[in-house]
Protein 1
Amino acid sequence: MSAVKTLGVLTGGGDCPGLNPVIRAVTRRAIQAGMQVIGIRNGWKGLIVGDTVPLDLQSVSGILPKGGTILGTSRTNPYKKPEDLKKLLETYKRLEFDALIPIGGEDTLGVATKLVKEGIKLVGVPKTIDNDLSATDFTFGFDTAVNIAMEAIDRLHTTAESHHRIMVAEVMGRHAGWIATYAGIAGGADVILIPEEPIDINAVCDIIKKRHQRGKDFSIIVVAEGAKFGDKDLTATEKLDEFGHVRLGGIGDALGKLVEQRTGFETRVTVLGHIQRGGSPTAFDRVLGTRFGIKAVELVLEGQFGQMVSLQGNLIIGVPIELGTGKLKTVDADLYRLAKIFFG
Ligand code: F6P
C-alpha cells in the first residue's frame, strides 16, 4: 500500500490529443495501487476554487481515443494573484491530497516547479503539440498535429498543382517550428519557415521563381505561426494571457501577400489553427500518453517527487521537473538543414 492515499490529476494550458490516455493510465494504475484518484477540473483554476471530480474505472472507460481532456483545461496562473496561490494551497490541504500529477506544457509545469518549492508533492507529465519542452525527446500531441498538418499539405498540393498556384500553409508553433519542420518534410513542402530563423523574403521568392523556371508552376510554403520577418511577432489581438503570452496570428497572410506581389504568382493562404489540436490522438500519442501516465504513478509510488516523466530514446524515465521547463527546445539545426535540401 502506497503512502499516497489521495492523488490529484489535472490538465492545464492548451489541450492536446493524448491527454485522455494519460488520465486513463494514471487512474487505472493508481487504483490498482490502492489510491483514490481525484480529477481537478480546468487546470490550476480547479485547485484554486476546489472544483474536483472523483475518477474511477467507469469514469475513464472509453476515453482512450477521445481528443481534448475530460477534465477541462484553462490557462490560469495561480502565481498571478497572491490570494489565488493561498486558496490553492488551502484547497490542497482541505481536500487532503497527498500528491498531484499535473499534465501540461511550459506554463503548467512552470507553476508545478514553483509548487514543489512550496512543499507540494508532485510528478509532472509534459504535454504540448508544439514539442518544445526540453528534457524529453517528444511530447504527446505532436505526432497527431504533424499528421493532421501533413494531410493538409497533401490536400493543398493537388489543388495547388491544378491551379498553378502558390499555397501558404500556416501551422502552429509559437516559439519552435517542430510541427512546420516535420509536417513540411513529410508533406514535401518547397519552403519551410520557422521561428528559429528570421524570414528572408528575397530568398523565399528566389526559391519559388527558380522552381517555376524548372517547370514547377505550383509551390507549397509551410510557415509556423511564430515565424517572423524581423523580431516582432504578428499577433491576432493585443491581449495577453495570464502567463503573458500574446495570441499569434497573421504571418501566413502577410507572407502570402508579399510572395504574390514579388513573384507575380497567384497565392492562397490556409491557416490550420486549432484543427491541429482537436480530435483523436494517433497510435503513437496514445501509447506515449499511456506510458507517461503509468510512469508518473510509479514515480509517485517510489516517492520520487519533483520529477517529470520523459521519453529518452525508447525509455520512459523521470527527470527533475525544472529541466523540462527551464529552457525551450528549439528545432534541431541538423534537421532543418536536411529540410532545406528539398527547398525549391
Ligand atoms: O502552445 C500550444 C499552442 O497550440 C500554440 O502553438 C498556439 O500558439 C497556442 O497554443 C494557441 O493557444 P490558444 O488555444 O489559447 O489560442
Note: Residues 133 and 328 are 6 Å apart (CA to CA).
Protein 2
Amino acid sequence: MPATRFQNGDTVMGRWPGSNLYYEVKVLSYDNKNRLYTVIYKDGTELELKESDITSMAIFKQGATRSRSRSRSRSPGRPRRSRSRSPARTSRRSSSRTTDVQVQRDKLKEVLEVRLTPMPMKHENNSNSKNEKKEENNTDNTASTIIEKTETESENQAGGRYNLRRRKDQGDGKAVEMEKKEETEALSQTKTPAAIKTTDLEFGGRVGVFLLMFLLPLAVLALLILSGQKDASLQSFPLELPTLQSLWDTQVFGIVLLWLLFQAFLSLLPVGKLVEGMPLKNGKTLKYRINGFYALLLTAVVVGVAVYQGVDLSYIHAHFLQFCTSALLIVTLLSVYLFVRSRWASEDELAPGGNSGYIIYDFFMGRELNPRIKNFDIKFFCEMRPGLMGWVLINFAMLLAEMKLQNLENPSPAMLLVNIFQLLWVVDGFWHEEKLLTMMDIVYDGFGFMLTFGDLAFVPFTFTCQAYYLVSHPNELSVFWIVTLITMNGVGYYIFRKANSQKFAFRKNPSDPAVSHLKTISTATGNSLIVSGLWGFVRHPNYLGDIIMGLAWSLPCGFNHLIPYFYLIYLIALLVHRNARDERQCRKKYGSAWEEYCKAVPYRIFPWIY
Ligand code: NDP
C-alpha cells in the first residue's frame, strides 16, 4: 500500500454512507487508482470509503474521555435516578427472560436507529482538531459504536446534525462491573435529553394546520351528507345542507360519552397481558395492558344482548350526523385538555414533532407523547378502542338499518361482505394489538388534534361510509362478483398479514425457522433487510395487501358513485405518503444498503407501476 493515512489492518471509524453515523471498521485494502479504502464493518459488510469518511479511533476516544469527564462532573448535581430504572440493572435479569430481553433490545435498537432527529447545527470552537469535534455517544455494551460527528463537510451534506440517543444493551445475563454501571448511569443522567425544538413544520406549517383543523371536520361532514343523499353524485354540489339545529342532539352526545366510558372501563380491566412499550428517550418504558381482543368480545356480547332486548341500533343511522358532530365536539374538548395539560409535562415527555412553540401548530400535532392519567394511556386507548370498536358497531347498525328501511329479511350480500371484510380487519388489529406499540403513531407522534380527530372522528365516520352508503343505495351482486370479492379480500389479507408477520418475526429473531430461509442484505446497523419473498416483490407488500383489501371493501357498492371509494382513495394517498416518509428514514438509517435494496426491489408498492 502506498503512503496512505490508514494502513491495512488498522481499526478505525468509518462513516456509514449517506449518514452521519460512524462505526468501527477494519481497513482491508487501499485502491490507489480510485483512492478508496475497502473496509469491513463488524457485521461483515464490506464497503469502499473515501479517506474523508474515515477517521482514527484516537480522536473518538479523546472525545469519549472528554464526554465522560463532563458527565461525571455534572452528574452529582442531578437527582439520581432510581437504581431499578438503571439500564445496567436489566443485565441481571434471569436467563429465562432472555427472549423478552432480546425483544426489548431489538425494540430499543430500532427506536434509537429510526429516530435520527435532525437538529440545528451548533458549532463549538474548543475542539482539539481544527474542524472536527466528535463526541462519543456510548461505547459500552453495544455491538457497534455510534458516534455523532460534527464537521463542516457533514453540515454541508446533511444540513444538520443527528441527535442520537444512547444505545443501551438491555443485558444478556452477564454481570456488569460496578464501575461500568456507575459510568452508564452517570452518562444516562447527563444525557437526559432536553426536548427537541420542532423546526421542520409539516402540513404547510401554522397556516396549513390551521386550515386543516377546519377543513377536515367539514370534509367528514360533507362526506356523510353526500353518502346519505339520494343522489350521492359528486356533481350534486352544493349539498342540501342540514340546519344547524339538526346537527345536535344532547341524547346522542350522552350516548357517545357513555360509549367512551364503557370502552375506557373495558381497557382498564385487569385481563390480558401487561407489556412494555418502546423505550422512551429518557430510558424508561411504559406498561400497556393488551386486552383489546377481550374488550371486542365483551362489547359484542353487550351489543348482542342489547339488540336481543329490543334496542334499535338503526337509531345510529337515523342520527348519524349528530353522532358525528358529537364526536367532533369531544375531539375538540379532548384536544384542548391535552394541550393544556402538556404545559405541565416535563421536557422529555414532549413529542419531537409537536414542540415548535407555535400554539396552533403544537395544538394540532400534539405536544405530549404519551399523556396518561395514572395508568390510563389516553393515546393508546383512543388509537384502538372507541374508534375501531365504533367502526364495527356502526357497520352493524347500518346492516340493521338497511334491513329495516328496505324491508329485507336478511341483509344484502353487499352489506354482508362490507361488514365481514371490515370486521376481519378490526379483529386482526386487536389480535395483534401489541404491535401497535412499535408504530409511528405511538412511538413518535404527539397526541393532539390530529390523532384525536383521526381516532375518534375520521375512523368511525369515514371508514363506515360504504355501509352507510349501501343503506340508501342498494347494489345487487352476482354470485360471480361475490366470489371475486371474497377472493380479492382473501388475497389482500394474506399479503397484508404475511408481510407484517414476516417482518415482525424477522426483526424479533432473524434465525426463526419461519423466516431464516429469506435472503437478506446486511446493513451496518446490525439490522438486515429482507430481499426475497414478499419483501422482495415490492418494498411495501403490507401496504399493497391493505390497498387490495380497500378495493374489495369498496367494490360491493357498485360503480354508480365515487363516494364509496373514498376510503380507497384516502388509503392510497396515505400509504404513498407514508411510504415516502419511511423510505426517507430508511435511507438515512441504512445508507447504501438501502440503495442496494431499492435496486434489487425497484417497485415501492405496486409491482411494475410504482
Ligand atoms: P411498516 O410495517 O411498513 O414498516 C416500515 C419499516 O419496516 C421500515 O422503517 C423498516 O424499519 C422496516 N423494513 C422496511 N423494509 C424492510 C425489509 N425489506 N426487511 C425488513 N424490514 C424492513 O410500517 P407501518 O407502520 O407504516 O405499517 C404497518 C401496517 O399498518 C401496514 O400493513 C399498513 O398497511 C398498515 N397501516 C394502515 C393504515 C390504515 O389507515 N388502514 C394506516 C397506517 C398503517 P426497521 O428496519 O427499522 O425495522
Note: The radius of gyration is 27 Å.
Protein 3
Amino acid sequence: MAWRSVISREYILPERVAIFDTTLRDGEQTPGVALTTDAKIEIAKALDDLGVDVIELGFPTVSKGEEEAIKKITRENLNSKTCVLARANKLDVDKAIECDVDWIHIFIATSDIHLKYKLRMSREEVIEKAVKIIEYARDHDVVVHFSAEDATRTDLDYLIRIFKAVEEAGANSIDIPDTVGFAVPSAIKIIVSTVKKNIGIPIAIHCHDDMGLAVANSLTAVESGAEIIHATVNGIGERAGNTSLEEVAVALHTLYGIRTNIKLEKIYEVSRLVEKLTGIIVPKNKAIVGENAFSHESGIHVHGVISSPQTYEPIEPEKVGRRRKIILGKHSGKHSVVELARRFGVELTDVQAEEVLREIKHRGDLGQKISDVHFLEILTKTANTDDFNRRITIRSISIHSSENTSVALLHLNILGESYVLAGYGRSEVEALLNIYRECLKKTYGFNINDYRIWLSPSPRLFSESEISLSRDGEEIVGKGVHLSPLIAFTQALVNALNQIMEKEGRKND
Ligand code: KIV
Ligand code: ZN
C-alpha cells in the first residue's frame, strides 16, 4: 500500500492486475532446462493452486512430447486459463487449436531488425500476415493474445498501426514484449501510455531481465496502463530470464496496493518446486525467495528485528511462506546469541553471552560459518548445558559410489550406544536420505519436507545444509556446516533428529 496515494497523484492505478505465467514456456526456454511431462503437470497444478490467471503451457510446435504434455494438462481442468504459443502461421495455430486451450498466444516480430534479418518481410507484409492469422484463429472461436515480438525496439508509430490492425481483426488482448530486455522504465512509460491511448483491448507487458530491469519495467507498464503482466517463477527464462512472478506480485500488493489473484503465502513453496524440477538454483540473495531474503546476521539489525521486525524487514516473512532467520557470524551481537540460546531452551547470563559471542567472532574471523551444531557445541562448553543436542553424534560416514549406485554407511553414537546404518540410492545424498527415512519411519513418524545443500565454491569455504521435517503441522529444521557437503548434510539430518529426541524427551519427562 505504501506508495498508492502518492503515485495516484499522477497515475491512474488499476485495482487489480492479471498474472500471465510463462514458466512452462519462456521459463522452459532457459538454457539447459527441459521438463518431463510429469514435471510440467506438477508445475501447472502448483501454478493453478497459486492463483495465476493464465498459464502458458508451452509451444506445441516445438516437439511431440511438448504437444502431448500440453494436452495432458488441459485435461486436468485447471481453474487458471490455459494458453499456448503459436507463430503467425496456420500450422502453429492449428496445432494450438488441437490442444484445446482457452487462449492462443500468437506472435510475430515487428522491429526493423527482426524484419530485415529474420523474417525478410516488409512492415506491410507483417501487418497483413498478423491480421490474416488472427481472423483465422478467431473464426475457430479461440481467445487470441497477440504479441509484437521486439516491440520495444519497434518504431512506435508502426507498433500502434499493427496493434490497431490486430484489434480490428478480433484480437482479445495485446502484449508488448521487451524481447531483449532493452527498455528502461521511462521508455516503457511512453510506449505503454501511447498504446493505451490508441487501443481499447487489454494490454500485457512481457519483460526480459538482460539489464536487471524486468520487474521495474513491468511495474512501470502497470503505472502506464497495462493490466496483464507476463512473469515466470524465480524469474527463469531466455538468457537472463523474465520478470519474476514472486517479486512483481509482492511489489504490486505491498508497494502499490494492487490486487492480484496470487496466494502470496504459497509463493515460496512454488519457487522451491520450480527450482527442484528445472535445476535452476535460486541465488541466496534473490528477493522474496532467496535463502537470505529474511535472514539477519549483523548485531544492529538483529537487535532491531527482535524489538520490532518492521525495523529491518519490508514485509513479514510469513506472508510469503518464509520464516525469519538469525544467522550467527562475525557481525553478530549479544542479542542474537541470547535470543538463539533461548530458542534452544538455554538462558545465558551476560558474561556467558559475551563468552559465546567472543568464540563466534573468533571462528568468523577464521572464515568459518556457525551452524546450529557449532552453536550448541559452544553453548555446551560455555553454559554447561548437560550434553544438550548430543544424544546422537556422528562417528564416521563412509560412502562408496559406482556409476549408478551409492552405498552409505553411517556410524552413529545414539545415547552412548554404537550403531552402523546402511542405505542405498542413485546418489550419495539419496543413500543418506534413505538411511534417514528409515530412522524416521521406525521412530517418530516425521516426513522429510525439503532439504538443501549449498556446495562450497572453493575448498576454503564451508558447505551448508538444511533439512526440514514435519509431522501433523509441527516443523523441525536441522542444519549443518562442514567443509564436506556430505558431512554438512549428515550433520543437518542428525541435528534434526536430535531436536526431535530432545522434544520427545521433554514430553516424556
Ligand atoms: O520475449 C519475447 O518476445 C517472447 C515472445 C514470444 C512474446 O517471449
Ligand atoms: Zn520472452
Note: Residues 2-278 form a domain with the TIM Barrel fold (CATH 3.20.20.70).
Protein 4
Amino acid sequence: MDKLVIEGGSPLSGTIRIHGAKNAALPILAACLLAEGQFKLSNVPHLLDIEVMLNILGRLGSKCKHELESVTVDTASANSFHVPEDLMKQMRSSIFLMGPLLARFGEVTIYQPGGCAIGERKIDLHLRGLQALGAEIDESDQKIHCKASRLVGADIHLDFASVGATENIMMAAATASGTTVLSNAAREPEIQDLQNFLNSMGANIIGAGTDTITIHGVEKLQPCQYEIIPDRIVAGTVMIAAAATRGQVTLTHCNPSHLSSLIHVLKRAGVQTSICNDIMTVSCMARPKAVERIVTSPYPSFPTDLQSQVMVLLSLADGFSIMKETVFEGRFKHVEELCRMGADITTDLNCAFIRGVQRIYGATVEATDLRAGAALVIAGLAAQGTTIVEQVHHIDRGYDRIEKMFQGLGARMMRHSPVTKPLDLAN
Ligand code: EPZ
C-alpha cells in the first residue's frame, strides 16, 4: 500500500488548476446508459472511483476510453443489467446505476452496497423512490433485484435531501411516462450538473438547485458531449491547506459560487479570499481565529465533505471551536489521528470540541476514508516535522495524485510505493 511522506512547516504558495468533480462525473457516467451511442465527456479526473465506474460500464457491455481528462463512452453495446459484485464492493456509489439500468432494460440487479467508514449509508430513499415510479423490488441480504415493465411519473418526497437518491430518481424518471415532482430534493451543484447533462441528452428537467425538481418524461434520449463542473471539495481542500500552512494560493478553473459556505467560515477565521470569475486566491498570514460553531448539513450549508479538513485549521486556531456533523454518523475517524499529532479535540456523539494549539507535530497516521485522509495530508503539511500517511488508496479515490497537487504549491511531499518484486522473466 502506498504511503505519503510529508515534511511539514512550509507555507503553500503558487497557482493550481482544479480538476473535474468526482461527485458530478460518477452519476453522469451512469446516466450515459439512458441512451445508445457515443458520449464525449471532458474535465473528467483520473481517480480510482472514476476508473471503477468505467470498469463497471465496460463489464455491462459499453466501450469506454479515458485519455487525459476526456472520456468517451459508447453504450450502444451495453447488454447487461447485473452490476458485478466485486466492483460494487469497490465503490458503493455504483448504486447510481440502478435508475439508468432500470430505465434502459426494465430490470437491474445490484449487491447491497453496505456501509463504509463514515456511516451506515442506507439506500431506503433510493428504493422507495424507484418503487414510487413503478419498480418492484426484491431484496435479499446480499442482492437487490428491481423490475419495472414501465416507469410512470409520480410525486415523490424525500425524508432526507439525499444526493444519491435525488440523482437516481432523476435518471429513472427522465424517460418515464408522465411527470415526476421530487420534493425535498438535494440542491448540490452536482445535481444541477446532472440536470444540465440529462437536458443535453434531450430530457426535460427543471428545478435542480432548488428543493423541488420536476422531471417531464420523454420518449428517447440521445448521446451528447459535456464538460464536467470543477470539484468544489478538492478546491475547498486546497483552500484549507493554504490557510493551515499560512500560505497564499491561487486556484483556477474553480467555481467560487459553489464554496460560499466555506468562504464564510474562512473569513470568520481571519483568512483572506479574493475572487475574479473562476479564479480564487486564498491567503492567511497570521494564526487563524477559532470559529465558534460550524454545523454540516446539505447544500448550500457547510458540506460534510469538508468537515475533517476544516477541523485541521481549527486545531491550529487561537481559541475554542465546535464542529457538529449532522449528515454521517461516523465521520470523526480523523480525530484520533489528529490528536496523535498534538491536536486537542474531544468528541461527544456528533459534536467535536476543538481547542486550538500553537502547533501540531509529525507522526505516522492512517487514512480511514477519503476526506479523513485528505485532512491528515493537510495536518502533515502544517505540522512541525515528518508525517507519514498510510492507506493512501482512500485518498486516491477522490484526489488526482494529491502529492503532485501539493508539490506544485511548494510542499515537500513524496509518495512511497511498496517495492514491487522484479518481474521473474524466467517463466
Ligand atoms: C454523496 O453521497 C456524495 N458521494 C458524498 O461524498 C457526500 O458526502 C454526500 O453525498 C453528502 O453530500 C457522491 O456523490 C458519490 P446522501 P450519498 O445520500 O449520495 C442517508 C465524498 O467524500 N441516506 O446524501 O451517499 C445516509 O445514510 C463522498 O466524496 C439514507 O438514510 O449521500 C447519510 O447519512 C462521501 N437513506 C445521508 O443520508 C438513503 O436512501 C446522506 O447521504 C440515502 C441516504
Note: The chain has 14 helices and 23 strands.
